[in-house]
Please model this.
Amino acid sequence: MNPKLTINLDQLKHNASKIALLCQSAGVTVSAVTKGFCAMPRVAEAIIAGGIKSLADSRVNNLRRLCTLEAEKLMLRIPMLSEVEMVVHYADLSLNSEWDTIRALDFAAGKQNRVHGIILMFDLGDLREGVFNREELIELAKKTSMLDNVSLKGIGANLTCFGAIIPDEQNLGQLVSLAEETARTIGHDLEIISGGNSSSIYLLQEGRLPSGINHLRIGEAILSGTESAFGRRLPDMYHYCFQLTAELVEVRKKPSLPIGTVGKDAFDQVPHFVDRGIRKRAIAAVGKQDFANHNLKPLNQGIEILGSSSDHLILDITDAERDLRVGDELAFALSYGAMLALSTSDYVSTRFIGGAC
Ligand SMILES: *Cc1c(COP(=O)(O)O)cnc(C)c1O
Model:
């Protein structure tokens, strides 16, 4: 059924093993982030087969989908107070910054007879999650380490998500020194110092990751084979493990300039067009309802994306290398955002290539 998301499990396994080895060589363990593919268990299995033993997601519902897989589970988004029971049930540890939530996790863990791991988040300047003040973090660590049903595992930081701040020796160095200060205060070393996401990969490649950082949470680099500080491709990795296939429902010659008075399009934008004369156009049956406003890239030569509305992808196929007709399928590479959106769309089917079965 079209549209469909084709996922190459063998290529993902390869990417996961490359990332695992790169990290291992610097003494860093990896949690593979599964939100980019809505935590489909078969995809997570391929990543585990690549040698990564910990899975992480922002949504507890996604972690629940992974519950039968043998791997550590890490909850990435600061838990909601209203979901602490679920978090304790489906995650071994979670990222946290709020005392009320940590106390609630402790209470829930007690009721479930479990010990839940806590990583305290420190904000190094990206201004998304995390405690902003060093003394406050140490205080929170002290209080957390006194609870019975949670275990303070470490501290972590997230960068390049909101403020687009790039990790470097200086900001990650601050995290390491804060971990040392925290350890002195609570009287024992922290097991985990979690130094970010796929934007920290370039530091590893250049041998510049501050020593002490021993954990990363990696999604994009595994799924797309790219690091996310500068958007560079990583060598010897696959970049199109996820592809969208869409089917053409109309193929017609039309002018390139719309005719009549210009108002606003279906998404309240005033569009701009360049007059290129009569062009051969096609409509593929997929749209913003499926991939939101994220980027797709045609994998067939000579295809240009003109735009999209909720259910239509409008293409210029004048320079296509073959004569395209209604019913033909086209393949598209996906940005991380498009992948995330497409894998949660009920209108998109999934096809796996390779893997165990
Ligand atoms: C999504 C997320 C990640 C993974 O980021 P990538 O850029 O895909 O590697 C890591 N940490 C947190 C807290 C996240 O929310």
